[in-house]
Amino acid sequence: MMTMNRLWRQWVHFWFAAGDPTTMAMIRIVAGVLVLYVHVVYTSDLYSFFGQKAWYGVETANRERRELPTQSTTIWDWEWEKENQPKSARLPNEPHRKAAILTYIRSLPLDDKVALDKALRCLDCEADSKLYNRIGMRGEFAGHAHMNDEQVAKALILYTPNLSADPLVRRNTLNAMADKALRDKNDNFPAALGFVPEQDWRRKVDEMEAFYLTLPTIDQKETNREKKGAQQDARNYVIEYFTEMTGTDRRNFLKFVRDLTAVSEKERETRIDYLAYWNSEARYALRIGTPSYSIWYHITDPTEMAIAHGVVLLIMLLFTIGYQTRITSALTWLAAMGYIHRNPQIIFGQDTMMMILLLYTMIANSGAALSVDRWLLCRKARKLGIARSGKIDAATQAYLDAPPPSVTSALAQRLLQVHFCFIYMAAGLSKLKGTTWWNHNAFWDTLINPEFTMVHFEWYENLLRWTASSRPVFATLAAAGVWGTLFIEISIPFLVWTKLRPWAVGLGLLLHAGVGVFMGLLVFSLFMMAMLLCYLPGVAIRKSLFANDKKPPPTS
Amino acid sequence: MLRNATIGVGLCGLAAIIGLVSDASLVNTARLLLVAGGLLTVAVALTKRPSDWQLWAAASIAMWLAWPGLPDSWDSAQMVARTVAMVTAAASVLAYAPKFRYIGLSAFILFHFGNMVTATTLPDSRPWVSQQLYSHVYMPYMRFMYLSNAYHFYSPDPGPASHLFYLITWETDEPDFNKDGSPKLNSDGTQAKKTESSWVTLPRRDEHFKDPLGLGYYRRLSITELVAGSVPSNLTLATFEKNEAYRRRQEVAMPAHPNHIPLIPPPLMDPYELQFRIPRQDIADYMFPSYARHIASNYSKPGRRVVRMKLYRVEHRVVGVKEFLDRDEEGRATINPFTPLSFRPYYLGEYSPEGVLLNPKDPMLYWLTPIIRDSNSKLGYTDYMSKHAGFEYVWKERP
Question: Of A198, A446, B298, B367, which residue is least crowded by CB atoms under 10 Å?
Fold first, then answer.
């Protein structure tokens, strides 16, 4: 119990001890300037990135946030098959095949459950329900040990295109298949039928015909080769769809179409449309839609967008200078999130870091120091102090010298510190999976990547040629670069909690300066550097900025 | 303060009541303003006394009222209102019972970092625990807070960047004529219009690196990186369509084919299965069509409409050290990192301005249209991408 109490006290002290808000205030300023820059740069691309017909258009984005299905595997099953068996019907991925299947689904007798059952009965088979052994079968099946019900069904489906469009001819063929006496030895019958007990032949051929009648028709009188080819393709796609799908997929398909008979025409269309768009059924999704927010889903007129963007920039400016920071920090976070949610296509690592910084500056009372808010409060305190006693008393002076400690600022600072460790640890450990980080080729691959680095400058290219011309020099540099990166990323999460913290922070800054210069990721590096500020004590920041090393007053 | 907060709650409530009466556009604008004003009033009151549980409760009520107060067309803002209403309600409880404050906040901290553990362990291996935590617990939080990044930067290995090349075809208002001066006719007998074509590429350092830190350029690079997600054909299931795709490609590889593009064998080019890369389904289904609509809208103007576009994803291979150091007999470098030979263009199809893939059975769809060394060409290479597109792309020595 004592240990638990001690642990709890240590936990509370670690997270909730009041601290100097100057660090988070400094982070607010640096992050604010960068956030402002990021969003000012959006101005020229506002419509391209967030407009109605942006790269990722509003229509597509809206469907995603409202309809995207989230799937999940089952919690309780151990078996691989059960875990991975989808419940939803699935269509082919290729647009032409998908279109053929959708047309096929719509052509089925969805208003008549009995007719639908009859039409699709030949698909309704279980892979392991029946096993037809070859014992007693004719010699022509010698190559097969056995066929199960599903394999027979697939073979019969594949055979259906051979049936005649003429009802009489077709019936004769099917009768011959079902009755040995009517069969000619030269007739080409599906061998698979031979695996089925003779008494089932009649039923099987009837099912075949019912299925055949649902297939896309081919107009024999059609003279246009292209049109006839398209009809032939449509039929083939349906048959191929049923023959290459797994047993689970087939059962899911059957359930999907059978359930369509029980719903209204509008609901039917909604379900088919959803399946066509997402290739998944909404009813089996764990969750529908995503919790995305953005004003750009709702404001799409270019003029209105420009006005809204201007207001956002103003809010970000106010946040940076620390005016009404509690409100502007929340609005800045929300607004920045709106840009990210609206177009996740254009975001990269720097946006992740930006949102982390904005989250913690929002939690922190980041306007408690180095801000207009603080300046206004100091002015008010000074006035009140003078009004009260004609001079500034000791308590007021202490308040003016340093901002009062804040629990929320200290908590946010701690959260950021721990979060930073997560980032570095994940970045470092994940690299250990890559071959190029072990053979040091990652050094070259990052240094010469034409889209990111400065290799488009001839002098840089020449510098690389000169460096790489000596293999020992190059190999040593590569080793230093790779090992240095791994060492910094994996060790910093430990070193920052020791007396070596200043060195760890210095190494982190060095790494990001390198990433910024040599890998071209300048804004990302600046955000990471802003994060590293969280390890600096507030008093050190005040001392370096204002030569003020006075401690905050004891009360919050 | 409580009085101010009550006014804020009242404004949100008023917006909700108006919403019951009318849904007209002007009324909706008024409702938006009322909600914004109401929430701002409550927020200002709250910042003055952040430890007052009543103000947190008022903020929560205001948020609950903001939900119906906001027009339905602002559904994403309604979602935010609901979320913040729950957060402020929790904050109100913690403010009312300071004894439980640390416990409540500690629970949040554990939840928050649990999210981070889940996010960082999800990619690639997807352990069962992370997968279940993601789908059943963290997914909404992760998405809403944008805390889904796994921080696996440049891992497991740094890869090549990609570009998107669009060959855009415009139709002008001018009539088109045959070489003999007779009017060119469409298949339906109407007068054909003159068409023009041009390449548009993404990203371009000279065009998109506008701001000092090049954000516009990197944003576009993100777009091209995202669509690079593809699956080599040997990792996809054997299907009728895949067989067809191989058959169609073999036909084009025949020297007698009118649009002959050779199938270059290894080691001169990647193995065949890597030359056929099927884009991830979400990219093919949603992104390419959306990008096509954007291109059509962005590059059309009165009298010059985009009518179709061919799209290529051009992977820019990183030149190896040994290759980079190669010199000719006169001591000059034989290759620079921007040589056309270092690009691998994959054809992603031709799209209509509406974003419809025009020919899903195109023999070259998702296949590499190689750029190969050719000593017979005065350029030193043959660019089959240009040949396939039917329009020459002029490669620059460096951007």
Answer: A198
- Sort out which chain A residues have CB atoms less than 8 A from B281's CB and list them: 93, 279
Rounded Cα distance, B128 and B136, in Å = 12
Mean pLDDT to the nearest integer, B355-367? 95
Q: What is the ipTM of this complex?
A: 0.92
The answer to whether the CB of B253 falls within 8 A of the CB of B262 is yes
Cross-chain CB nearest to B337 (options A54, A425, A450)? A450
CA dist A56 to A69, A448, B275, Å? Answer: 19, 30, 28
Spacing of C-alpha A431 from chain mean position? 21
- SS3 string, A291-324, reads CCCCHHHCCCCHHHHHHHHHHHHHHHHHHHHCCC
B368 forms bridges with which residues in the sheet?
Answer: B346
> Given A290, A346, A425, which is nearest B143 (Cβ)?
A290
Q: How far is CA A176 from CA A118, A119, A169, A201, A205, in A?
A: 21, 21, 11, 10, 10
Query: Mean pLDDT highest for which of A6-10, A218-222, A245-249, A333-337?
Result: A333-337
**Cβ contact, residue pair B289, A522, below 8 Å:** no
Distance from CA of B256 to the nearest CA of A (A): 23
89-108 of A, contacting B, C-beta below 8 A: 92-97
Interface residue A70 vs chain B (CB under 8 A): yes
Cα gap A11→A283, rounded to integer Å = 44
For residue B50, the chain A residue with the least C-alpha distance is A326
**Between A286 and A35, the higher pLDDT residue:** A35
pLDDT > 90? residue A135: no
Which tokens sit at A438?
Answer: 């072990």
Q: For an interface test with B, which of A94, A274, A409, A422 has the most B Cβ atoms less than 10 Å from its Cβ?
A: A94
Who among B161, B293, B298 is closest to A452 (CB)?
B161
- From residue A28, how far is each of A34, A69, A73, A325 by CA, in Å? 10, 37, 42, 10
Peptide bond into B160 cis (omega under 30): no
> Do residues A377 and B251 lie in contact, with contact meaning Cβ atoms separated by under 8 Å?
no
Cβ contacts (< 8 Å) between B50 and chain A: which residues? 326
Q: Is A435 on the interface with B (CB under 8 A)?
A: yes
* Tokens found for residue A288: 């529908």
Are the C-beta atoms of B46 and B56 separated by less than 8 Å? Answer: yes
Return the SS3 of A161.
helix
Please indicate whether, in this complex, the C-beta atoms of B145 and A286 are within 8 angstroms of each other. Answer: no
Q: Count of residues for chain B?
A: 399
In this structure, are strands A146-148 and A131-133 parallel, antiparallel, or unpaired? Answer: antiparallel
CA distance B344 to B185: 37
pTM to 2 decimals? Answer: 0.91
Could you tell me which of A520, A518, A535 has the C-alpha nearest to residue A424?
Answer: A535
DSSP secondary structure string for all residues of A24-75: HHHHHHHHHHHHHHHHHHHGGGHHHHHSTTSSS-HHHHHHHHHH-EE----S
Q: Rounded CA gap, B287 and B26, in Å?
A: 34
pLDDT at A536 over 60: yes
Given an 8 Å threshold on Cβ–Cβ distance, is B226 in contact with A352? no
Q: How far is B33 from chain A (nearest CA, A)?
A: 13
Nearest to A418 among B74, B113, B147 (CB): B113
CA atoms of A149 and A132, how far apart (whole Å): 7
Contacts of A518 (CB under 8 A, 6+ apart): A446, A447, A453, A454
CA distance B254 to B20: 69
A128: number of Cβ within 10 Å: 9
Which tens digits make up the pLDDT trace of A401-429?
Answer: 889 999 999 999 999 999 999 999 999 99
Residue entry with tokens 């625990």: B129
Which residue in B has a C-alpha nearest to residue A475's C-alpha?
Answer: B321
